[in-house]
Amino acid sequence: MITLNEIKQMRKNLGLTQKQLAEKSRVSQSLIAKIESGKIDPAYNNVQKIFSALNTLTKHEGKKAEEIMNRHIVSLKPDNRANEAVAVMKKHAISQVPIIRNNKILGIVSESTILNNIDRKIDLLSLREIMEDAPPIISKETGISIVSEMLKHFPILIVQDSGKLKGVITKADLFKNIKRVS
What we know:
Largest sheet: 3 strands, mixed
């Protein structure tokens, strides 16, 4: 979901020490230090605690994910074929499409995914065979600075609320919300 470097960068962007983030996350400072130095692979629940604290700390920043997300989710199922993904991306002028089954994100297929498999028979490949890892899932309350930071590393973010898909955010969605400077 979040890379170790992103936790460190987000903490620094908020002007927090490791100890302050640890207190807000209800984890130990040594855990934060080990995560940031790459010495351990943290348990999912600890990353959730840290991410939740980072979200809470950015609530005063203005816009939230919910305000900039695209509520129209164009998605495909893992059994769809790669050539169907190409057609959907062309039709909707998008560069990636989430692969979803039963309201759960399984992975993503992007233009790069297709290009990396172009030498294979694209009409025979299922998306299950070529999809990449699922993109990060964020809450609708995630602050725009965290969204911006995450979009530096991921092409798309998935917005969920109470386990239900609510929208997607791409760099294009973020750019639409940048105020014009004249």
